[in-house]
User: What shape does this take?
Amino acid sequence: MKKTIWLAAAALSALAVPAMAQTPPTPSPPPDSAVQQGVLVFEPAFFADSRPDTALDMIARLPGFGLDTGDSGTRGFAGAAGNVLIDGDRPSSKSDSLDQVLRRISADSVERIELIRGGAPGIDMQGLSVIANVVLRRTVTVERVLEFNSYLYPDGYIGPILAGQYSRREGDTSIEGSISATTDRTDGTGDGFRRRYDPSGALIQDADLVLWDRFRNVRATGAIQRPFAGGKLRVNGLVGWFGSESAQDLLIRSGPGLDSFNDEESDSINGELGVNWTRDLSPRLGLELVGLQRYGTEDYVGVSESGADTSTFTSDGSRGESIGRAVLRFRPNDRWAFEGGGEVAYNFLDSATAFEENGVAIPLPSSSVKVEELRGEVFGQATWRPGPKWTVEAGLRVEVSEISQSGDSDLTKSFVYPKPRLQLTWTPWEGHQFRFRAERQVGQLDFGDFVASADIDIGQVEGGNPDLEPDKTTLLEAVYERRFWGEGVLELSVQHGEVEDVVDLIPLTGGFDGVGNIGDGSFDQYQVRLTLPMDRLGIPNARLQARGSWVHTEVTDPLTGESRRFQGNQAFGCGVNFNHDLQGGKYSYGFDHGCNVDKGRAFRVREVRAFYNEPFVTLYGQWKPSSDTTIRLDIGNATDRAKGYDRDIYAGPRDVSPVAFREVRRTWMSPWLFVQIRKTF
Assistant: This one.
C-alpha cells in the first residue's frame, strides 16, 4: 500500500513541479461583472487562466457559487431543479444529472455565464436564491470527445471508465449524443473490524471484517433541438443499466458467535424521454411546455449465512413517472415580470418483498404493495425591481395530491398544501448584498417507506408503513454577501425552520421499525462560505475556498419523550479546497478536504446508531499538453480514512430496557489513483 501511495505522489509531483519552476504569470484582470439588475456577467476571458475544457469546469470557477445538481428522486419537475440554466432554460431531464449535461458542453461553445443573485425580472429562478445561466454561442461548433479514465487500487484492481460524445450546435439547432461504460468498486471494499462491548466497556467479541463490492454501469444519452412551430423544440432521451454485487465476511477472532457471510446482488434498468418546447408569443410574452416520461425496474437479492442458519431477503419492483408542465411568462417592462402555470404528474411504485429464515417465510408489514400518486400544482410568481438596489420576488404554489396504496393494505390519502414564498434582495453598496427569504416548504413522501426493506449486513429488516404524511416547514433565511478583490466572496447565512410532522422511525406491528411521523420540531443553521483569491497574498492564479456550517435541530423522541436531534442531523460540517493554475492553465494542482467527522445519529426502537466518517482528502495534478488534450491524476482518500458507526443495542424498547451491548464498526478502503485522459477532435 505504501509503495502505491508513494508512486501516486511521485506522479502528482511530476505534473506540478515543472510548472512551478516557471515565473508566475501576471494576475488576470477582474471579470466583466458590471451589475445589471442583479446579474454578474463572466466572459470567457475570466476563465482563460484555467483553460477549462467544459462548461462544468467554468461553473466550478464561478466565485461564490456552488453547483447544486437538484434531486432526481423528487417527484414532479419543479422540485427537482438544479441551480444552472442553459440559454435561460432548464434541461428537460431528471435522470441525466446537471453535472453530466454541463460536462458535455465544451468551453468553446460558451459565450458567457450569468450569475443571478436574488432574482431579476425575466429570469426564471426555479425558486432558488442564486442561479447561473450558461449562454451558448450562436456560431457553429462541432466537438468529438473520447475519454479514457481508470481507478487504480493498491491491490492491483483496475476500474476503467470509457466514454465518448459528439455534439454540433448552430444557433437554436443542435444534436448531441454520448455513451459511457464503467466497472469499478466503492468504499464498500476494504478491511476492518467489528467489536462488541458489554455495558461496563469490557470486550465480549472481536471480529474481522472483509468487504468486497463491484458495480457496472452502461448508459447512453441523446438530444436534438430544432426550430418548430415558431419556437424551439428539444427532445432528449436516456437509457441505462446498473448492476452491483457485494459481499461481507465476518470472521470471529474471540468471544462467542459464529462466522457469517453476506452476499447481495441488484440489477436496475431505467429510461427517460423528455420534450421541451418554448416560444415567444410576443416580445414580452413567452410560453414553455414540458413533457417527461420515466420508467425503471430493479431486482435485489440479499443472503446471510451463519453456521447452519440462513436468511434471505428479495425485492422486485418497477417505478414510473409521467409529467406535463406549462409555464407562461410575461415581462411588461424592465421592472416587472410575471410567471404562472401548472404541472400534473403521475407516479407509481409496484414492489414485492419477501423475507425467509432457514427457509421459513417471515411475514412483513406491507411486503407487496403498489403505491400511486396523482399530483397537480398551480403556481404564480411576480418579480418587482422598484429601484437599482431592491428586488422583490413573491410567489404562491398550491399542491394537490392523492396517494393510494393497494396490495397487502389498501389506503388512500389526499393532501392540499399552499406554499407561499417571499424574497427580498437589497444591494446598498457595490459588493454588498443582503437577501431575506420566507417560505413554506412541503416534503415528499418516499415511496420506498411504504414497502418493507432490509439491511442484510447487520440483519436488520424494516416494515413498510402506509400511514405517512409529508413534513411541512416554515423557513426564514437571511444572507449577507460581500464581494472583494475581484474574485473574493464572503457569504454569511442563517436559517430558522419550524417543522410539522417530522419524518423519523417509529415502532410497527410485529416488532419491526418503520418510517413514520413523530410530531413537530425545529432547526437553526448558521453557515459561512469564503472564496479567497491568493494573488494579493503572493500566489497568482490560486484560490482557496472554505465553508463551515453549524446546525441545531430539536424534536421529541417518540419513545423516551426527551428532546433530541433529528434523525441523521450533522451538527457541524466543513470543507476546504485549494487550486492553483500555472502557465496560463497548462498545469494545475490542488486539494479537497472534507473536515467533518460527525455524520449524525439514527434512533431506532432498540438501537441508537452514531455514524462516523473521518475526513476525506483528495490531491490532484493536471497537465494540458495541447488545447485538445487533458491529463489529470487524482489521489483519492489520501489519508486512508476510517468510516463506520457505533451502535448501542438495547435489550428491548430503549425507553424501558437497558443497553445489552455496544457495537463498534470501522472499515478502511485504502487510497486510490484516478487517471483521466480526455481528447477532443
Remarks:
- The first strand starts at residue 39 and ends at 42.
- The first helix runs from residue 2 to 20.
- The helical segments are 2-20, 55-60, 98-103.
- The CA atoms of residues 551 and 571 lie 5 Å apart.
